[in-house]
């Protein structure tokens, strides 16, 4: 799950006692989703020291706004503007879609920018695929997402040899 | 469109054939190629496999080297507007600056621009250099006309165009263009530019109520009851027309206007006038009659008294108005 979406959409529940999936008392069932405590969200814990982390993974969510920027920016999060939930759902879908389409090729999280109607998806990729395949997947993504969302979707790809390592944990 | 967005680092300067080097030295990190005992030359000898040309999985010929970044080939006098013609995210191979961004590790420096997501996240203005803006302006000039030279002061604009209509347009990021707040229309004008006589003006002010501001003499009508801006504008103009015509009409019941309905205080026929007249007449002891009253009214002290009382009642109590009233009374009563 992408680590840092906009601040408002981090889903966190504290003090959930027990994480039972359902309570079978007679005819009624209760379904409880798994808890994600806010002090464990989007954090990679300190380990042996051999695991390379990118800047995005290394900094924790409370650093958003201080040492990290926002992965997506749009006007719906401003005071008095509507459509924030729609934009968030769209962005979650776009991230999952790209994660699956460019399997193992993404070097870092996806940055989504909206310029008016247009959705500009900025990605950093590794040079794993031959260029023809990459071109095809880029065109495929753009066409499909434009048809889904009825707005122009532009994919801006930069490639790297390998991931940019910030530190080792 | 896909090719345009792809970074130039993927495009190679030319094909590099593997068999020149003999051994695969270009894959230290074990990416998409596979270790194989076969050499390239067997593809021409081995008739068992169908020759798939350049599409086989063990083919290394089409694996290109990443080219040099564009920054290595940038002259100093280049046209920057060709590098960044429109708003695009930061491309580390196209920006020849050694920018660093991010929080440094301990005893380190901020991470470099290569693979730096922070630089991509922020909006950049690399496409808005002064030269680029100048070019935009030059391109837009044929579509613009000069401001009329006769309208060089604000007063002249008000004189020729007294009615001001204001509405807002909204731009937002999202799949829909519509914003319901865009239908609101504000109409402003000064009442002094309308042809109203005294009665019409007072009636107009009473009709509009709160929409009239006395200090600036401005009538402001805001319409938002219709769903479309054009409809709201038409409604506002209709309201203005109706107000104007209605204020000129004199209804029969308007003649029953009492003193309590008056907007301003007028001294004539008021208790204050009656009182002061009777006081002065008694002081004079010369005789009664209309002529005496006329003569008393004509006196300057009485005029002063009238002015001061009118001022007190209309403007409220203040130091200067109280002083004026005190002086007028003193003069009148010869104190």
UniProtKB/TrEMBL annotation, chain A:
It comes from the Eukaryota. Keywords: Mitochondrion, Ribonucleoprotein, Ribosomal protein, Transit peptide. The keyword Cell cycle does not apply. It is found in: Mitochondrion. Coiled coil: none annotated. One of its GO terms (cellular component) is ribosome. This is Mitochondrial ribosomal protein S24. It comes from Hucho hucho (huchen). The lineage of its organism: Eukaryota, Metazoa, Chordata, Craniata, Vertebrata.
TrEMBL record, chain B:
InterPro entries: Ribosomal_mS35_mit, Ribosomal_mS35_mt. It comes from the Eukaryota. GO terms for cellular component: mitochondrial small ribosomal subunit. Residues 162-249 form the Small ribosomal subunit protein mS35 mitochondrial conserved domain. One of its GO terms (biological process) is mitochondrial translation. Coiled coil: none annotated. GO terms for molecular function: structural constituent of ribosome. Residues 42-73 are annotated as: Disordered. Residues 64-73 have a biased composition (Basic and acidic residues). This is Mitochondrial ribosomal protein S35. The lineage of its organism: Eukaryota, Metazoa, Chordata, Craniata, Vertebrata.
């Amino acid at each position: 799950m992408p680590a840092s979406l906009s601040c408002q959409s981090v889903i966190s529940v504290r003090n959930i006692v027990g994480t039972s999936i359902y309570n079978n008392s007679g005819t009624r069932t209760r379904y409880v989703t798994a808890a994600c405590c806010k002090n464990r969200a989007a954090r990679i814990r300190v380990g042996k020291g051999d695991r390379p982390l990118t800047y995005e993974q290394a900094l924790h969510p409370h650093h958003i706004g201080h040492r990290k920027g926002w992965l997506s920016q749009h006007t719906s999060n401003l005071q008095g503007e509507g459509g924030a939930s729609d934009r968030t759902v769209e962005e979650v879908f776009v991230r999952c879609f790209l994660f699956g389409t460019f399997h193992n090729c993404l070097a870092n999280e996806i940055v989504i920018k909206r310029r008016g109607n247009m959705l500009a998806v900025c990605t950093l990729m590794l040079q794993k695929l031959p260029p023809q395949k990459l071109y095809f997947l880029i065109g495929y993504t753009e066409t499909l997402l434009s048809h889904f969302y009825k707005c122009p979707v532009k994919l801006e790809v930069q490639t790297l040899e390998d991931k940019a390592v910030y530190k080792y944990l | 469109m896909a090719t345009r967005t792809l970074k130039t680092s993927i495009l190679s300067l030319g094909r590099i054939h593997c068999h020149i080097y003999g051994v695969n030295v270009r894959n230290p990190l074990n990416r998409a190629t596979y270790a194989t005992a076969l050499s390239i030359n067997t593809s021409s000898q081995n008739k068992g496999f169908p020759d798939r040309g350049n599409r086989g999985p063990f083919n290394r010929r089409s694996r290109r080297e990443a080219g040099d970044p564009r920054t290595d080939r940038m002259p100093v006098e280049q046209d920057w507007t060709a590098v960044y013609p429109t708003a695009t995210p930061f491309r580390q191979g196209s920006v020849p600056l050694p920018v660093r961004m991010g929080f440094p590790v301990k005893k380190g420096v901020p991470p470099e621009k290569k693979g730096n997501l922070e630089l991509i996240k922020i909006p950049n203005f690399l496409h808005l250099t002064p030269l680029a803006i100048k070019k935009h302006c030059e391109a837009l000039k044929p579509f613009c006309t000069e401001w009329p030279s006769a309208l060089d002061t604000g007063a002249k604009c008000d004189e020729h165009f007294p009615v001001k209509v204001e509405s807002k347009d909204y731009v937002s990021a999202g799949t829909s263009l519509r914003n319901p707040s865009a239908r609101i229309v504000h109409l402003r004008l000064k009442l002094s530019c309308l042809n109203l006589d005294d009665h019409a003006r007072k009636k107009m002010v009473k009709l509009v109520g709160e929409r009239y501001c006395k200090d600036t003499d401005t009538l402001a009508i805001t319409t938002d009851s219709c769903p479309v801006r054009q409809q709201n504008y038409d409604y506002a103009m209709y309201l203005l027309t109706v107000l104007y015509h209605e204020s000129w009409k004199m209804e029969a019941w308007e003649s029953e206007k009492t003193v309590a309905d008056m907007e301003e205080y007028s001294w004539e026929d008021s208790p204050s006038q009656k009182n002061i007249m009777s006081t002065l007449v008694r002081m004079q002891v010369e005789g009664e009659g209309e002529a005496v009253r006329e003569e008393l009214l004509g006196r300057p002290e009485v005029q002063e008294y009238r002015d001061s009382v009118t001022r007190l009642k209309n403007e409220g109590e203040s130091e200067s108005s109280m002083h004026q009233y005190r002086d007028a009374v003193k003069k009148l009563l010869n104190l």
